[in-house]
Specification:
The structure is a homotrimer.
Chain A: E1 3-8, H1 16-27, E2 33-38, H2 46-56, E3 65-69, E4 80-85, E5 88-93, E6 108-112, H3 128-141, E7 150-152, E8 168-173, E9 179-184, H4 188-194, E10 198-201, E11 204-206, E12 221-225, E13 230-235, H5 240-244, E14 251-255
Parallel strand pairs in A: 1-2, 1-3, 3-5
Antiparallel strand pairs in A: 4-5, 4-6, 6-7, 8-9, 8-14, 9-13, 10-11, 10-14, 12-13
Amino acid sequence: VTVVALITDFGLDDTYVAEMKAALFRLGPPQMRLLDVTHAIRPGDVAAGRWALQRIWPQLPAGTVHLAVVDPGVGTSRPAVAARTDGRWYVGPGNGLGAFLAAAPDVAVWRLELPSPPPGFQASSTFHGRDLFAPAAAHLASGGDPAHIATPGRCDDLGAAARTDTAWRVVWVDRFGNLITDLRRDTAAARRLEAGASLTVAGRRVRGPVRAYAEAARGELIWYWGSGDTLEIALDSENAAARLGVGPGLAIALDRS
Amino acid sequence: VTVVALITDFGLDDTYVAEMKAALFRLGPPQMRLLDVTHAIRPGDVAAGRWALQRIWPQLPAGTVHLAVVDPGVGTSRPAVAARTDGRWYVGPGNGLGAFLAAAPDVAVWRLELPSPPPGFQASSTFHGRDLFAPAAAHLASGGDPAHIATPGRCDDLGAAARTDTAWRVVWVDRFGNLITDLRRDTAAARRLEAGASLTVAGRRVRGPVRAYAEAARGELIWYWGSGDTLEIALDSENAAARLGVGPGLAIALDRS
Amino acid sequence: VTVVALITDFGLDDTYVAEMKAALFRLGPPQMRLLDVTHAIRPGDVAAGRWALQRIWPQLPAGTVHLAVVDPGVGTSRPAVAARTDGRWYVGPGNGLGAFLAAAPDVAVWRLELPSPPPGFQASSTFHGRDLFAPAAAHLASGGDPAHIATPGRCDDLGAAARTDTAWRVVWVDRFGNLITDLRRDTAAARRLEAGASLTVAGRRVRGPVRAYAEAARGELIWYWGSGDTLEIALDSENAAARLGVGPGLAIALDRS
């Protein structure tokens, strides 16, 4: 049973996600499973989409097609790509959303072309999610040859992530107000923190790593390795984002204490 | 694999949609696929529900059962109907939600009766979505004969749409603030616009048709044929609805320029 | 086809629900069906989670695994449990969320242990929904023996509901502003109401039971047996919660009139 996992910035109120799924139903394999990873990416926030994609990527089985559409440049000259690594597929824009895949030694990249619309349909220049990416995902989920819908591409076609490896930021605020950052547990910065470097956010010191929220003292900011293996910050039993008045984009700082 | 596509004004916070699906799971075929088209129709906004239904209708394969519940008159004397056209089913209230189906030459209409509740359940006079429409959709998705659950009806039982063919309005505002209207591309009004008639909304001129959002000049209102083949209005790279302070129901006007 | 029904307080914006489903996809049976009952439980509102669970429980077929995670004490010493009654499973925290199951004569209870993470994964101390409860639900949905993942437990491990049987409250406000209470139709209090006891909420008298919303006079508060067989309160055709300025937790009172 092949999984097609969807990440978009379309929200769930509009019919857009359903229209992508309608294309998957028409064109995909009968045994396909759909997974809504999140559709709540802020419109055009490619960094948050990349974080969500990188987080869910290893949690889904080999064969999964990750269909990700956070695409502020839709209709412009940014490439549309498919990439395969680790037995899994990425289908989406080449705007940096799948930038982390370029580092995989076995990555292969293709450039997608806008298909002819099926009879009775008119392909839209504004809705590549439905008219380009979903049909490509359906083709790959069916075990189809990428050469039938795409031309060979290069890693550069995936696009670049804007951030450097020496600056980190809050990339997501969850329902509980916890601040989720893009500082990954398998990096040199993580080793510096584990060795005692201090962490500050919004001018306030953060203690960590802790193992459970309950370790926080009253009103204390704590950090811990979150369930997605990146650094997270919480405030005792309160909503950290609301109390600090912060949100996605906020920088975090590491220093020798 | 039969698709059952759901449109409601129930939202996703309450358990109502899940209860409809529970009825589909109990009574429907084992190979059924469920599709949430949208549950964010404003409570009782039959026109928006009709727009969503008409939009998704041709995108789903033959055999699909469209289960649509925007039903401010639930429990009153409005009929409950099933209709078949084009190899697809509509199941829902006869309040105009499926009014556009009446124009199809091959349409057939039935009137549904409230079924006896299964043992251990008590049918509710307030939740026809779960107790009447979902069981009917399950029956039809299983290939059941409509005569077993309904009596022959007439096109009038579908109800009428309130609007005329010479006035159009904003029927939906999407997550990006784009104004989606009910002016369809295959109408005489569309031909007038393509021939140079001018379009105004909220007293402002709208330029179009354009092919991509990127064609807008700074601060300019543009129109284009949207991905649902109705006229849409956008504001450069901004949220048009928020900037203009408008929402569903707003009239649009066509004039010879 | 086994159903796994999910209730959480995670919301749908974050990736948490998808990560639980990813675990179900990796570890569950190929023919499993997932049902999102609701993810909009207010963070930590165990009473609302219990209400939703008790409401959906009988509506899903025998064999269903109810996976419910409203778990403010995650990572502390509260037990993690599985319970079976009536051919259905509960998997979740032992904090009272499944308290009503303890009254069933055939109930059997197990205590779950945190499993070793699969290769390449690191079990989180903060995300038992994904790392403990979802794998247990997948095991049970596959027909696995609970003894392989749990030790025998007692009814006490389910935890207790805080409320008494002589006080009732508003436990949910739905999208339409209707006030849904935890006063069940099969109780002595219900019989008192049917026999003419009066009902007041926020100091206002409520008339009932009525059979349809349309029975309300202008501006009148009415009560009726809702579609979940608990008492609900509505205000004519308005949003009762907004007009009265009330929400979950509000007490309702019964008196001889």
